[in-house]
Amino acid sequence: MKEADKKNNDVIILGIESSCDDTSAAIIRNGFLLSNVIASQAVHSAYGGVVPELASRAHQQNIIPTVSEAIKRAGIQKEAISAIAYTRGPGLIGSLLVGNSFAKGFATAMNIPMIEVNHLQAHVLAHFIKEENEPAHIPEFPFLCLLVSGGNSQIILVKAYNDMEIVGQTIDDAAGEAFDKCAKVLGGPYPGGPFIDKLAQEGNADAFSFSKPHIAGFDYSFSGLKTSFMYFIRDELAKNPQFIEERKADLAASIQKTVIDVLMDKLRKAAKQYGVKRVAVAGGVSANSGLRAAFQQHADKYGWDIFVPKFSYTTDNAAMIAITAQFKYFDAAFDSIDSVPFSKVVI
């Protein structure tokens, strides 16, 4: 660490995120974001989903220039970095190995600690990122977090940065998967969430109704909803081959409303049972305008103190990895050099 940083007792974390198809590097100093660089991979759109082999190869090409750019934008020297953090999992194992290997090499070369971060916990803790000259709205523990993405739909009781309890989760498809699959039926691209969201703003959300799952407790299920949607489309196309084109916006608005109703119904019940008024949302689907509006409506009606992330923190990014690592840094929760990634969901 540079002498100036030593005098100021600055803690500077370099975060690396490579769990899926985005290569990201970020620098956080004392909780404040200095840079957050993301290199996306457009190649997957042609395949309708992420191709693991292509993703890992692209990470190998992107990681060094992405880290270099993050350090440059932060206005620091690499010698000032206190620790390097990386996503250990869950995710695509080939992609994770790229970040893991880079972190090991960088930590060894710079003689600094390495910190492993759980990708899902990082999405939750993205709410603790601070930015210079911007008001910070940071939740106090405990709070509930609805984590919704292409692969996960969970309600998490967050008691501390390192104490999170999943009180509800999907038993099959995630909310993001439902959006992706319904968007494909409507002729949309991958990922389908932004496509559905944009169309929905032009449609009537009450035009059509679809079956909602009846699952005990706080768990979710979206496979039945997806099936109901596809059967409905099939039957209507049999009567009118132009049905999708004529009613596309209404279909998008109706399926989006149904998914959001299912998500919020369980979250509302969980908040009541646990007596929690602080409620957050995180993950890629948290960028959805309808879901954000539903959070504000619940805040107004039930007196929730809500925490909705900036759009730049909804998708996979290294800033959330770095802020999570800062918590662990102060607890000296460092990683071993022989640590390996994991692909399955763990929190």
Overall description:
The protein has helices spanning 3-8, 52-74, 93-110, 119-125, 175-185, 193-200, 223-239, 243-274, 289-302, 318-330; strands at 12-17, 23-29, 32-39, 83-89, 114-118, 143-148, 153-160, 163-169, 278-282, 305-307. It has 347 residues and is of the alpha/beta class. The protein has 2 domains: 3-135 and 316-330, ATPase, nucleotide binding domain (Nucleotidyltransferase, domain 5, 2-Layer Sandwich); 143-275, Nucleotidyltransferase, domain 5 (2-Layer Sandwich). A 5-stranded mixed beta sheet has the order 3-2-1-4-5, sandwiched between helices. A 5-stranded mixed beta sheet has the order 8-7-6-9-10, sandwiched between helices. A hairpin with a 2-residue loop joins strand 2 (23-29) and strand 3 (32-39). Helix 5 runs parallel beside helix 7 (223-239). The longest helix has 32 residues, at 243-274. It is globular, with a radius of gyration of 21 Å.
